[in-house]
Amino acid sequence: MNNYIDDVAKKKESLYRSEFLRYAVRAMYAGMYLTLGSAVGFIAANHFSGIDPVIGRAIYALLFPWGLVTIILLNGELATSNMMFLTNATYRKAIPARSAVGILLVCTLFNLLGSMAIAFMLSRTTLFSNLEATHYMYNAIEKS
After folding, report:
1. Phi and psi for 101 in degrees, rounded to 5?
2. Distance separating alpha carbons of residues 96 and 62, to the nearest angstrom
3. pLDDT for 38 beyond 70
4. Taking 90 as the threshold, does the pLDDT of residue 33 lie above it?
5. What is the mean pLDDT of residues 132-143?
6. Helix (H) or strand (E) holding 132
7. Residue 18 burial (CB < 10 Å; 0-12/13-18/19+)?
8. How far apart are CA 76 and CA 73, in angstroms?
9. Average of pLDDT values for 56-60?
10. Spatial separation of the C-alpha atoms in residues 36 and 2, rounded to whole Å
């Protein structure tokens, strides 16, 4: 298992160094996929919360992970998974700490930019342009 983690971390470092733009785009896509997964979950949960709030929470919990599945299937670079891989690989001295920190900063920044870009586009849709104060999204954020 440790060899696998080291290999993945070295591959991330290689991509980061040799094809920075490609790495940055993959990180942006990951932010977009996760935001879309959240958005679909919020809309569906809001619909089902009218029936029962517990059902709305369950629906959101079932739909949100599809954003994560999309990231895995389409090779996105998510900061949280990179934190696990790179921390372990740095601890094991498979990659230098300086590289791990640089990769994490860039990945986090581009995850944020991708999330912001898709959130801006979603805010222009009819589903998200005029959310009521009772919408599931507000309630979920308020309770977290």
Report:
1. -65, -45
2. 38
3. yes
4. yes
5. 82
6. none
7. exposed
8. 8
9. 92
10. 33
9: its two tokens: 């971390």
Own/partner long-range contacts of 14-21 (Cβ < 8 Å, ≥24 apart): 16/99, 16/102, 16/103, 16/106, 17/99, 20/106
DSSP string across 19-75: -HHHHHHHHHHHHHHHHHHHHHHHHHHHHHHTT-HHHHHHHHHHHTHHHHHHHHHTT
Helix (H) / strand (E) element for 83: namely: helix 79-91
CB 94 within 8 A of CB 14: no
Helices (H) then strands (E): counts for the chain: 8, 0
**Confidence band, pLDDT 50/70/90 cuts, at residue 136:** confident
Percent of the chain with pLDDT over 70: 99
* The residue type at 59: I
User: What is the token pair recorded at 81?
Assistant: 């998974």
Handedness of CA 80, 81, 86, 91 (dihedral sign): positive
Please tell me the predicted confidence (pLDDT) of residue 60: 92
- The closest of 116, 85, 62, 88 to 16, measured between CA atoms, is 85
